[in-house]
């Protein structure tokens, strides 16, 4: 009867050990957040805080952080505000024949 006892016990022990090992590995890998570098400020951020954009024709994907995107938007707004489209129209000469 002891033989049958070991037949059941050994696979069960192996299963428990494997289960504990895989669980420990899962716990170790879980807190690791995949960090990616921002293409503009070169600071590392977790992927869910970055915007991935394909830049150029080389299938190269760059990541941009929220702060850099906001700064780009502000710079864009400042530039758009400086070059007023109405100013170009007033420079048009109205010389008649
Ligand atoms: Zn950035």
Notable traits:
single chain; 97 residues; alpha+beta; two-stranded antiparallel sheet; 3 helices; 4 strands; 19% strand; rod-shaped; binds zinc ion
Give an overview of the whole structure.
- By secondary structure, the protein is of the alpha+beta class.
- It has a domain at 32-84.
- The protein is built from 3 helices and 4 strands, in the order H-E-E-E-E-H-H.
- It has helices at 2-29, 66-82, 85-90, and strands at 35-37, 44-46, 50-55, 60-65.
- The strands form 2 sheets. A two-stranded antiparallel ribbon has the order 1-2. A two-stranded antiparallel ribbon has the order 3-4.
- It is rod-shaped, with a radius of gyration of 31 Å.
- The protein starts with a helix and ends in a 7-residue tail after the last helix.
- The site of zinc ion (ZN) has 7 residues, from helix 2.
Helix-strand string: HEEEEHH
Helix content: 40-55%
Largest sheet: 2 strands, antiparallel
Mean pLDDT: 81
Biggest sheet strand order reads 1-2
Write the layout of secondary structure elements.
Layout: H1 2-29, E1 35-37, E2 44-46, E3 50-55, E4 60-65, H2 66-82, H3 85-90
Antiparallel strand pairs: 1-2, 3-4
């Amino acid at each position: 009867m002891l033989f049958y006892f070991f037949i059941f016990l050994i696979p069960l022990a192996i299963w428990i050990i494997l289960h504990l090992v895989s669980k420990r590995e899962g716990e170790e890998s879980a807190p690791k957040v995949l960090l990616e570098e921002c293409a503009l400020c070169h600071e590392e951020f977790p992927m869910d805080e970055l915007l991935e954009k394909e830049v150029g024709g080389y299938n190269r994907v760059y990541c941009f952080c929220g702060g850099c995107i906001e700064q780009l938007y502000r710079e864009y707004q400042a530039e758009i505000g400086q070059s007023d489209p109405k100013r170009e129209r007033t420079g048009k000469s109205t010389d008649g024949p």
